[in-house]
Design brief:
The complex is a heterodimer of chains A (217) and B (172).
Chain A (H helix, E strand, L loop, with lengths): L4 H10 L10 E3 L2 E7 H18 L4 H24 L2 H6 L8 H11 L6 E8 L3 E7 L2 H9 L9 H16 L10 H8 L5 E7 L8 E7 L3
Antiparallel strand pairs in A: 1-2, 3-4, 4-6, 5-6
Chain B lengths: L7 E3 L4 E4 L2 E7 H15 L3 H24 L4 H14 L4 E3 L3 E2 L2 E7 L2 H10 L8 H14 L7 E7 L8 E7 L1
Helix pairs in contact in B: 1-4, 2-5, 3-5
Classes of the chains: A alpha+beta (217), B alpha+beta (172).
The structure holds zinc ion (2 copies).
The site of one zinc ion (ZN) has 10 residues of chain B, from loops.
């Protein structure tokens, strides 16, 4: 059985992830929030704007900070999901190859409100190309800021690198403990994956596109 | 949940909205890491950005939703905001002491406090900035106040070692 994205999206949506009597959403071994895109966009683009205005030379460093947050997000969120009982029940039975871990995770994310991801190309252990439509980062950016000449989907971009690192670098299929040590080991490896947002709706492209490759082939 | 509390999902496009504004699932690791990144980068300016962004987000959503829901009393608008806050995973907030002059609100099981403590332990000062902004937005919408008139500050926080999180909302 191959990954059936529709079944995954409908099932995750149908889980009705909402606060319990404490007002918390414990799921996939995490505490989730069904948060405001407006909040993330304002704080992310707000801090970026402030740092760059004060010192334009800091642009790359500021983007690196937001990318690091995205790597942390992917490591724990995607890692937590791929280690969860929910994953075992829903996605694991559809998995036939290591690449299906990537496709299965993309399907779960498509139930998270981030927009619609589609795997355009996946070369095992080497390269991932993902298209994203209706990214909440680019659409939120365009609502409040002038069109940019650089990409703006920092969370999605770092997330894609994180996904490849989990599957091909940290070997999430063996269910390692998702510790800070493992995070550092995986992401500081010179051969680990990084993502580049080649197309972005925030700079006028029709959609966003991410290319994920190893830093050193 | 009644219809106007429930987020609307467009599964084809991967978009969920509430009151016309987009919602996205994220976990506590990202939430507190991103907040810490911003606090480290902006230092004493960070709380202003974090609280203002929380207020803007909640105000936009509540305005959109209360427009659809034909509101009712201000107290009901505030209670619906608190129910939404809990349904979204941010914790249980008691808004019964809030009124058109502001007031005190207490928050149990704050997502940001729980998340911060689980990752890093205690912090020296309160850390639930989003919640503070959310409450200011809720008061502004419930009493139809210009947002500039409402400020909100967390005065006690579980992440800073207090027994509970509590907030002081002021209307000027
Ligand atoms: Zn983009
Ligand atoms: Zn707190």
């Amino acid at each position: 059985m191959a990954i059936d994205e529709r079944v995954i999206v409908e099932t995750v949506t149908g889980m009705g992830l909402a606060g319990n009597e404490e007002g918390l959403i414990p799921a996939f071994g995490l505490y989730l929030t069904n948060h405001y895109a407006d909040f993330y966009n304002r704080i992310s683009f707000g801090v970026l704007g402030a740092l760059v205005r004060e010192n334009p030379e800091l642009t790359e460093d500021a983007v690196a900070l937001l990318t690091e947050a995205a790597h942390v997000c992917a490591f724990h969120t995607f890692g937590g999901i791929m280690s969860s009982v929910e994953w075992d029940a829903l996605v694991q039975p559809m998995i036939e190859s290591r690449e299906d871990w990537v496709r299965g995770m993309m399907a779960v994310v498509n139930a998270f409100g981030w927009g619609r991801f589609r795997v355009a190309e996946l070369l095992p252990d080497e390269r991932l190309v993902v298209e994203l439509r209706d990214s909440y980062e680019s659409s939120g950016y365009l609502e409040s800021y002038p069109r940019t000449d650089g990409p703006r989907c920092f969370l999605a971009n770092g997330g894609m690198a994180g996904l490849m690192n989990l599957v091909y670098q940290g070997d999430i299929t063996r269910r390692p403990a998702l510790t800070e040590e493992l995070y550092r080991e995986v992401f500081s490896d010179p051969r680990s994956f990084r993502s580049r947002e080649r197309l972005c709706a925030a700079k006028g492209d029709s959609h966003c596109e991410f290319v994920v490759e190893r830093m050193q082939g | 949940m009644s219809f106007h509390l429930a987020p609307q999902a467009d599964l084809e496009r991967g978009i969920t909205t509430l009151g016309g504004r987009r919602l996205v699932f994220h976990c506590h690791h990202y939430n507190v890491f991103l907040q810490r990144t911003i606090e480290d980068a902006l230092q004493e300016r960070a709380p202003r950005l974090l609280v203002a962004a929380g207020m803007e987000a909640s105000r936009s959503m509540l305005q959109g939703r209360e427009g659809e829901a034909q509101s009712g009393s201000a107290a009901r608008v505030l209670q619906r905001a608190a129910d939404t806050f809990a349904a979204q995973g941010f914790g249980r907030v008691d808004v019964r002491q809030l009124g058109e002059g502001g007031g005190q609100a207490t928050l149990d099981h704050s997502h940001y406090a729980v998340g911060w403590v689980s990752r890093w332990g205690k912090r020296p000062a309160p850390g639930c900035f989003f919640a503070a902004g959310f409450l200011a937005g809720a008061v502004a919408v419930a009493y139809r106040l210009a947002p500039e008139r409402v400020t909100s500050r967390e005065v006690e926080c579980v992440a800073a070692g207090d027994e509970r999180c509590s907030f002081r909302v002021e209307v000027w």
